[in-house]
Structures are given as structure tokens and as C-alpha cells.
Design a protein that fits this description.
Length: about 270
């Protein structure tokens, strides 16, 4: 793990694989950290790629943020990290909130995006009801901490049947959630409540796009992935059986096969 000063905070990150490999930036969701991507890092590095996995500000080992962090702030952090690493263009992938940050990076910094990987995410702006729910949840996390929330949502983060069938995966996901600083989680929730609509951004994308979704995702179901596919007709859509909201953790072999095939067949290794 390495760290660097970025826009008034400290970001911790892993930069793994050959410096000459195709750079892949993977963005975790809420309320996780960079270790969510461990199975993907291993597979990508073995295939010769360079993989950068940061802890977003407010998450993992990175600096804690209070108040509100908008998705544009996270995206600007990632661009600054790419600058620090002297990476001009990268494949940018994200799951859930991380997918929305990837879309925000495409919206504001399209020239830095070689391809998009969008896992278990959605493109429209938040609804009025959703804004209220996210802000109430931010208040709750600040008041109560992360433990109760983690216990409540584990059966939605993973497909409910995987909580007992995959105890090691469930424990890893619970550990990440419980370890997240409530201040960072709350700041991200408040910013995510104000996110823009990314549908026009996606409709204008001409670079390669991979869409992945767990077949039993209840947070962002298959219909959300299909809606993104309708906006980006040239995108590749993969539905991962036996998985919920985190197919990269629940079914890493299936997720990795789709990702590696996409990179090999759709993404040029040249700048």
C-alpha cells in the first residue's frame, strides 16, 4: 500500500502489476475499500495488466472527510491520482457508487477514460425519496456507527443465499463495512444524494463499455443494467448468475472471465 497527498487529503492505494501493462483503475463502492477488488487484481496482474485500486477519501486507510463529498470530488481525486502515477488514460471500472464515480469521471474527464466497466450501478439522478433516505441514513450512521447498518444490509450486498454459502466472503464484506469511518460514509451518502443524471453522458460514450450485474442484485437489478445497455448499444452486458450486488466478490471467476475477455477483445493496449 502506498499513499499520496491529493486535493487536501491523503489517498492510500495499491499500484500492482507491470508498469508497461494496460492500466486499469478500479473504484470500490460504499461502504467498502480497495480490498473488495482483490480477486480482480490477482487475475488482471496475471494477465499482464497494471491495476490501481485506491481507497476513496473517507474510506479504508485514506483521509476521513466530513460534511459532503460529491461524486465529482471523488472523480477529481482519481484524476489527481492518475496524474501522480503518470497514467494518461486508463480503463476505469467501478461497482455501485464506484460505477457512478466512473460515470462522473467519464462526464468530466472523458479524455482520461480508455474504457468503462460498470458493475451493479445505475445512471439516473437520485429521486426526491432517495435523497431523503440517503440523508437520513447519513444522520443515522453518524449517530449509531456502522455495525447495525452492516448487519442489516449484508443480505442485500450479497445475494441472501451467499451469506451462509460463502462465509469467508460475507465476513470480508462485513469487515469492510464495519471498519468504515461513519463520517466518511455519511459525507459520501450526502454527495451521492445530489448526483447528476448520467444518461446523456452514457449515450455519448464511444469508447468500449462493459456492464456487469449480479443476476440477483436487489439494489441495482438486472433492469438497471439493461437500461444502461439501451443507452450504449455497443456495450457488452454480462449477467453473473449466483451473485447479488457484488458479483466480483461472490463469483470472481465468472466476473474475471467477463472482464478479461472484454479487455482482450475490445480495448486496445496502445495509448
Amino acid at each position: 500500500m502506498t499513499s499520496t497527498a491529493v486535493r487536501g487529503t491523503t489517498l492510500h492505494y495499491d499500484d500492482t502489476g507491470s508498469p508497461a501493462g494496460l492500466p486499469v483503475l478500479l473504484v470500490h463502492g460504499h461502504p467498502f475499500n480497495r480490498t473488495l477488488w482483490a480477486p480482480q487484481v490477482e487475475a488482471l496482474v496475471a494477465a499482464g495488466h497494471r491495476v490501481v485500486t485506491p481507497d476513496l477519501r473517507g474510506y479504508g486507510a485514506s483521509g476521513v472527510e466530513q460534511g459532503t463529498v460529491h461524486l465529482s470530488g471523488f472523480a477529481d481525486d482519481l484524476v489527481a491520482l492518475l496524474d501522480h502515477l503518470e497514467i494518461e488514460r486508463a480503463v476505469v471500472g467501478g461497482v455501485s457508487m464506484g460505477g457512478q464515480i466512473a460515470m462522473e469521471l467519464q462526464r468530466g474527464h472523458a479524455h482520461r477514460v480508455r474504457a468503462l466497466v460498470l458493475s451493479d450501478t445505475s445512471a439516473p439522478a437520485e429521486t426526491a425519496e432517495g435523497k431523503a433516505l440517503r440523508n437520513r441514513m447519513a444522520d443515522r450512521l453518524l449517530a449509531e456507527g456502522m455495525d447495525g447498518y452492516a448487519d442489516e444490509v449484508i443480505g442485500k450486498m450479497l445475494a441472501d443465499y451467499n451469506v451462509t454459502a460463502m462465509p469467508d466472503v460475507a465476513e470480508h464484506v462485513l469487515r469492510m463495512m464495519r471498519a468504515t469511518d461513519p463520517r466518511g460514509a455519511a459525507a459520501a451518502l450526502r454527495g451521492r444524494a445530489e448526483r447528476p443524471d448520467y444518461r446523456d453522458t452514457l449515450a455519448a460514450v464511444r469508447s468500449p463499455v462493459l456492464i456487469v450485474v449480479g443476476a440477483d442484485d436487489v439494489f441495482t437489478p438486472v433492469a438497471d443494467a439493461e437500461a444502461i445497455k439501451a443507452l450504449v448499444p455497443h456495450a457488452v452486458l454480462t449477467v453473473v448468475d449466483g451473485a447479488g450486488h457484488l458479483p466480483g466478490a461472490e463469483q470472481p471467476e465468472r466476473f474475471n472471465a467477463a472482464l478479461l475477455d472484454f479487455l482482450a477483445t475490445h480495448v486496445s493496449t496502445r495509448s
